[in-house]
């Protein structure tokens, strides 16, 4: 019985030490944009934009009104409370780019206001983008 308990606690210790507990680990996931909160307080609901972060690689998947989708690829750097995302140049000329992203020069630097295992909130010049883990 003692041997079984030792194995159990050893397994528990390994599991807890490997658990995701830093911000980079929490960020690396697929996030669904749920709403924009504009600087004038108007809330715009959204459900067709998904951001994906993984090891410095970024992608945004945008579901178009006809059910098709466009994917945008780039890179990101997450440092402190800021995340800088830069799209690869060939993706800034896609059809729906201005509607869904429209970032100047294909890049944007956000302040990370909230990051948990289930929620992400980004701020760009007072405009908030609120995501849920997908």
Summarize this structure as a short list of keywords or feature phrases.
8-stranded antiparallel beta barrel, 134 residues, globular, single chain, alpha+beta, 3 helices, Lipocalin, signal
Biggest sheet details: 8 strands, antiparallel, barrel
Name the average pLDDT.
Answer: 87
Enter the CATH topology name: Lipocalin
Overall tally of structural domains: 1
> Kindly, what is the distance between the CA atoms of the first and last residues, rounded to a whole number of angstroms?
41 Å
The strands making up the biggest β-sheet line up spatially as 1-3-4-5-6-7-8-9
The number of strands is: 9
Tell me the CATH architecture: Beta Barrel
Uncertain residue segments: 8-18
The secondary-structure element order is: HHEEEEEEHEEE
Which of globular, elongated, flat, extended, rod-shaped describes the shape?
A: globular
Strand content: over 45%
Organism: Bacteroides sedimenti
Keywords: Signal
Signal peptide: 1-18
Protein name: Lipocalin-like domain-containing protein
Word description of this protein:
- It is a single chain.
- The chain is of the alpha+beta class.
- It has a single domain, classed as Lipocalin (Beta Barrel).
- It is built from three helices and nine strands; from the N terminus they run ααββββββαβββ.
- It has helices spanning 2-18, 23-27, 97-100, and strands spanning 30-37, 43-45, 49-54, 57-63, 69-79, 82-87, 107-115, 119-124, 127-133.
- Strands 1-3-4-5-6-7-8-9 form an eight-stranded antiparallel β-barrel.
- The chain is globular, with a radius of gyration of 18 Å.
- It starts with a helix and ends with a strand.
- The relative contact order is 0.18.
- Residues 8-18 have low confidence and may be disordered.
């Amino acid at each position: 019985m003692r041997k079984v308990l030792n194995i159990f606690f050893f397994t528990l210790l390994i599991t807890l030490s490997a658990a995701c507990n830093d911000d980079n680990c929490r960020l690396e996931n697929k996030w669904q944009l749920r709403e924009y909160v504009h600087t004038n307080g108007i809330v715009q609901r959204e459900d067709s934009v998904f951001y994906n972060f993984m090891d410095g690689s970024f992608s945004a998947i945008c579901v178009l009104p006809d059910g098709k989708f466009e994917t945008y690829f780039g890179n990101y750097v997450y440092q402190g409370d800021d995340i800088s995302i830069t799209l690869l140049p060939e993706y800034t000329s896609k059809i729906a780019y201005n509607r869904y992203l429209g970032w100047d020069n294909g890049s944007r630097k956000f302040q990370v206001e909230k990051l948990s295992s289930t929620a992400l909130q980004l701020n760009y010049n007072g405009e908030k983008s609120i995501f849920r883990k997908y």
